[in-house]
Amino acid sequence: MLLKRCLNLIVIASLLFTFSIISSCTSKPEISEKFSGNLTGLVVGMPRPGGNGGLTEVRDTLSTDETNHAVRGFWNPVKNKYDAEFVWFDPEGKKAYTKIMNMSPDWKNTTIHYKGNGPLKAGTWTIAVNVDGKYLGKTEFSVVRDRSKIPLVAQIEAFNNEKLTLNEAHFIAEKIKCYADGICDENNVTSDIPETLSKRNVGLAVSVFRKGELTDVAFSSSSKLENAMKEIVKSVKVNNANPASIEISVVHSAINIKPSEQAVSLKMRQGMGFSISKDGKIATMLSTQIARRQIADATELLRQLSIDAGMAENGWQESKLTAFMTQDFVLAAGMDETKEIAFSRTVVPVDSVTRSDLVKSVDSAFEWYMKNQLKNGRYMYTFFPSKDLEPDDDWALRNLNGLFVLAEIAKDRKDERMIASVKKAIELFRSGLKLENGYKYLDWKEHRAVSSIAGTAFLLGAMTELYEPSYKEDMKLMADAIISLQEENGKLKTDFYRPLRDIDQMYYPGETLLVLIRYYKHSKYEPALKTVEKAFPYYREFWNKKENQDGPFVPWQIRAYQETYMVTKDKKHAEFVFTLMDWMLKKYTPLGRDAVPGRQGALDTQFASTAVYSEGLSQAYALALELKDENRIKYYGKILKGTLGYLLGLQFKPEDTYWIKRPEKVIGATALRPDINELRLDATYHAISAIHYTTKLLDENSWNAIIW
Fold it and tell me: Which parts of 220-284 fold into alpha helices (H)?
C-alpha cells in the first residue's frame, strides 16, 4: 500500500533544508534547459573510482576543494555514429573545458570527466552539449567554498546527528504495539518518554501489519517526537485478537532536488524516500514502500508518485520534488527486540556475523529450495513477495547451475533429505540427455531451451558431487561431449547445436572448466585435465585483451584455475587467479561502514553480482591461504567478510516476513538487491555457494579473527 498524502501529515517542510539548488547567471549563454535531439538528460556528480563509468552520487552542488567530478549524459540510440561536444562554462560565462566524444549509435549513456584547470571557481557553472554543431541542452551546478553548504553533505550530517538508537526506536515501537494490541491506553503511550527523545526534531510514520496484511498507516503532523507519538495512536486501530507488527519510519533531513529521473535513480540507491507536490496535490513514498511495490527505476517511481498525487503521469516534471532520509525499524509479532530495517529486511551488521550464522544461512536456504521444489523435480524459479506471485517460469540453465551448487552442499552435509531432493532434480534433467555420435549432451526443450556446453557441464557437476554407479556411463559420455567442443587453440565452443557459436565466452567456458576439473578429481579421467590445461593459455590471452576485461569472466575462471592449481601446483594457474581477483577488487570497490544500511559490505557494482563475485573471492582467498600470501589473506579476508555479511542481509529471515502472506515462499531465499524483493533461485544459490565454501575454509575462531 502506498503511503499517500504523507507530505501534508509528516512535516517534511519543517525538516527541509533551504539550500539553493540552481541559481541563474546572466553572463552565461542564453540557452534553454530543455533537451532536444537524442539527448534526454544531463546530471553532474561524483564518478566511480578508477574511471569505471557512471556516478556514485548525483550532486547539484560541489565545493572548490573537489577535483574529481563528471557529467553523465543520457541518450536515445540513433542509426549512425556522431560527435557530442561537452562544454563547461565557468561562472563568468567563459569556456573552461571542452570534450568531444565520438559516440556509437547504440550508446544510451556517457560519463565525461572534467579535465580543465582547477580548482573550480565558486559560483554557478553550466555544461552545454552540442551534436554535430547543434545545441541539444544544458545542465547547471553550483560550486561553493564551504563544503558544509553542499545539500547532500548537510543532509547526511543532519541525519547522523538526529539518528535514533535501537533502544530509542524500541521504546517507540513497544509503546505503539502495546496500544495496538489493546494492552495499553493512550496515556501509557505518551508516558515516561525520555527527555532526549521527546525533543527530537523528526517526523514519524507508523505502519501496522497483522498476519501479513497492512491494516493501518499513521502519520504525524508534528516535528516533535513526543507530539508525533500522541498523534499516531489516534490513527491506529486496537485489535487484541491478532498481534500487531509495528514498523516505524523516522523521517529526517529532507532536501529539494531537481526533477530528474537520473538524479532520483542515484538517490534511490541511498534508500531515500520521495515526495512530489504541486498546487496542493501531494504524494509520498518511503523507501520501504518503494521496495515492497517492486519499483526498480526512477521513471516508474516518478510516474507512480504523479498518479498517486492525482496528476498526469508526467506531472512530476513541473512539480516540487523532495528527497528525504529515513530510519526504519520493526517490532514484529513474536519479536522481543526492535530491529533496524533497510528497504524491507532487517539489518545484519557485518561485524555481528559468526560462522554459525553462515552455516544457518546455508541450511535455511536449502530448506527454502526443498519447500519450493516442484513435483517434477525442478526448483521454483522466481517469486514476487509483494504480489504473492509465483510465475510459471524458469530458465533451465539457472536451475542446472543451482543443481550443481546444491549437490555439493548436500554431499558435504550428508543430509538424506537434501540428497534426495537434488537427485530428484538430477533425474529430471537426465531425461533430456541426447546420444549422438558416441557423445551425450543435454538437449533440454523447456523453459528457455538448453543446448549449451554449460548446461551439460552443470548436470555433470551435480552427478559428480552425488555420484552413483548408475551415473558412470552417462558422466563419461557427457565429459567426452564437452571435450569434443575444444578447438586446437584451446578455446571452447559453447553450444552443441551451433558449434560455430562464439558467444558467452565470458561465462560458459569458466563454468565448464570448473566442472571438468572436479570430474577429473573424482574419476582421474586424464582427457578432462588435459582439456583444462589446454584451455589455460587461450583464456589467459583472452583476458589480456582489454576489450575482454569484464566482471562476468572473473569468478568462474578463478574457481576453475584455483582448483586446477590444487591439482597441478602449477604457479601460472595461481598467478592468473590473483591477477583476476586483484583486477576485480580494484574495479568494484567494496562498500564500507559509510554506506547506507543494507548495502554495507557489497561490491560497488550491480548489487545482484556481489554473490557471484563472492564465489570467486572465496576461492581466491582459499588460494591465498594455501600459498600463505599474508597480504592477500588479510585483504581478501576483509572484503569477503563484508560481502558475506551483505549477503546475509539480503536473505529473508522469519522476522522479515511480517508483511508477507506466505512466509514459506521466502524464508531462506536471497533477494536480488536490497531495494528489490524479487526472489530468483540463482541469487540464492550464488550466495550460499560462496558462504558454504567459506565455512569449509574457516572455523569459528579463524572467521572471527578476520577484521572488517
Answer: 225-234, 261-268
pLDDT digits (tens, 9 = 90+) for 262-319: 778 777 877 789 999 999 999 988 889 898 888 878 889 999 999 999 999 999 988 9
Residue 135's DSSP bridge partners are 130
- For residue 519, pLDDT over 80 is answered with yes
Looking only at the bridges linking them, the beta strands covering 320-331 and 245-257 are antiparallel
Q: Closest by alpha carbon to 380, among 127, 680, 617, 146?
A: 680
Distance CA 187, CA 184 (A): 8
Whole-number Å distance between alpha carbons of 200 and 195? 9
* Close Cβ partners of 68 (under 8 Å, ≥ 6 residues apart): 46, 47, 113
Closest CA to 208 of 191, 233, 231, 183: 233
pLDDT in tens, 456-468: 999 999 999 999 9
State the maximum Cα–Cα separation within the chain, in Å, rounded to a whole number. 83
**What pLDDT was estimated at residue 570?**
98
Provide the residue ranges of all domains of the chain, joining segments of one domain with +. Answer: 12-16+155-342, 39-149, 350-705
CB 80 within 8 A of CB 110: no
Cα distances from 619 to residues 440, 629, 645, 691, in angstroms, run 30, 14, 17, 11
Cα–Cα dist 230/6, whole Å: 17
Cis peptide leading into residue 119 (ω within 30°): yes
Q: Which fold has domain 39-149?
A: Immunoglobulin-like (2.60.40)
Q: Which region, left, alpha or beta, applies to residue 162 given φ > 0 means left and ψ of -120 to 50 means alpha?
A: alpha
Give burial (CB, 10 Å; 0-12/13-18/19+) of 315.
Answer: buried
Cell numbers representing residue 328 in the block: 526504519
List strands edge to edge, sheet with 55-58: 55-58, 39-47, 70-75, 109-113
Helix 609-627 / helix 681-697 crossing angle, nearest 10 deg = 20
How far is the C-alpha of 143 from the C-alpha of 88, rounded, in Å?
A: 13
State the cell numbers at 535: 584451455
% of the chain beyond a pLDDT of 90: 67
**Residue 108, number of CB atoms within 10 A of its CB:** 11
Grid coordinates of 334:
513474536
Confidence check: pLDDT of 416 > 50:
yes
Judged by phi (left if over 0) then psi (alpha if -120 to 50, else beta), residue 134 lies in beta
How much is the average pLDDT of 139-146? 89
Query: Strand 676-680 vs strand 55-58: parallel, antiparallel, or unpaired?
Result: unpaired
Q: Does domain 12-16+155-342 have CATH number 3.30.1490.150?
A: yes
How many other CB atoms sit within 10 Å of the CB of residue 30? 5
Backbone angles phi, psi at 280, to 5 degrees: 80, -5
Nearest to 325 by CA among 395, 398, 393, 249: 249
**Alpha-carbon span 265 to 482, nearest angstrom:** 43
Q: Cell 538424506: give the residue.
A: 416
List of residues 6+ apart from 113 with CB closer than 8 A:
47, 51, 68, 69, 70
What is the average pLDDT across 604-616? 87
DSSP string, 111-137: EEE--SSSSPPSEEEEEEEEETTEEEE
Task: Write the CB contacts of 612 (distance below 8 Å, at least 6 apart in sequence).
Answer: 552, 555, 686
Q: Name, in order, each residue with C-beta under 8 angstroms of 371's C-beta and a sequence gap of 6 or more.
A: 664
CATH 1.50.10.10 fits domain 350-705:
yes
Q: HSE of 288 in the Cβ direction (CA atoms, 13 Å)?
A: 26
Distance of alpha carbon 588 from alpha carbon 576, whole angstroms: 18
Q: How far apart are CA 471 and CA 455, in angstroms?
A: 17
Higher pLDDT, 597 or 699: 699
Q: Which three cell numbers stand for residue 585?
A: 577488487
